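## Example pair
The file below holds two records. Each record gives the amino-acid sequence first, followed by its structure token line.
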Amino acid sequence: MWEKLLDQSTNEFSAGHSFLLPVGLIPLVPLVRFYFHLSVTGIEHLPADNTPVLFALNHQSYLDPALLSCALPSKTRRNIWFIAKDKYFNSRFRRWFAKTAQVMLTSPNMRLRKAIPTMAGILKQGRHLAIFPEGTRTRTGKVGEFKKTFAIIAVATECPVIPVVIQGAFESAETGKKMPRRVPVTLHILPPISTKGVKPAVVAEKTENAIRQKMEEM
């Protein structure tokens, strides 16, 4: 069913490069890296030729998209799009900011039949896609159950999935805190998971297990 649907994915949503994003990141990247003592492992797992990949991350705080962007090399961060709920961008300025920051907004009224082809279209346009498979931020610091939407998209587009583990963001910005505390944050970029000829359920399980295992190790 999904294969036929994704064959119909269109470019109605233009995942172009934002001209303002690189400018905004000039002061943000060093500030975030300094404030959170941001460290990164596994940079070698990123595609050398910048071919599209789907980043799957555990969701610890509202800081997570900025942390990932600031942790990645510049050529990668300029090419990445995020998925977010439109309820957090409920004004004209915030919606403009979302587009400027390369964020695709989804809503409860957007059916999967439309949302999934649109997200797949981002990858087909040569961009990276970052998704939080838990669907919401953790309330306890532990990894929640993964939804399989990301795996359906990755398998249909044959884009590899790169699991990313965020450590420390929950302690810095627990739910309800407006000002993040200065807590060291580390991002672990894990080896890519191939999606060619693999069922979405298998990709989802491998991704979730990789992230959970890394969290347990830490």
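Second record, same layout:
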Amino acid sequence: MPVNTVVTGVGGQGVVSATDIISIVALTAGYDVKKSDVHGMAQRGGAVTSFVRYGEKVYSPIIEQGTADFLIALEEMEALRGINFLKENGTVILSDFHTPPPDVALGFKRYPGHIQEVLRKMKPAVKCYRPGVVSMLEEHPGYSINVFLLGIYARFQSYEKMVWLEAIRQRFKRPDKAIESFLYGYEKQVKEIV
């Protein structure tokens, strides 16, 4: 069965870069890979979702609702948009970083609270990890949210750390900060939220 991963966030967070790196890693391992990106008004902070599927043979890049193994939410509220793609016992890597969408920034709506509790009600068996993106950015200005969360995601995969680092080098012209961000996530101890 293919491994299905959904990455969601807002424009400028590196949603597409994250799935590019996952794709490079899976291709290096010899898997068939399919990827699809859905852009909202990405340049204005709109929602961006990217699907990546890999396995022995993958026929479609689209992930059907209820079939994703992983959801990586670079922006907390975007997890609510992506949760229906996740399997009942799937894994969420949930950022605590907030980038209010335009309707919230303009005061038409409120940013929802207690998102992890809402996710748990929607998918009670989900495994949810919340690695503390805001504290990471305070401690390490210039680190990247997308690659930091990929470092955590990588620990759920069977590929060697060096394969991930090489994929990052292939994806970025100046990979130093991205590699530091990835390694910080890869080495961070993150417990499942119960």
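Notes on the second record: The chain has a mean pLDDT of 91. The two ends are 28 Å apart (CA to CA).
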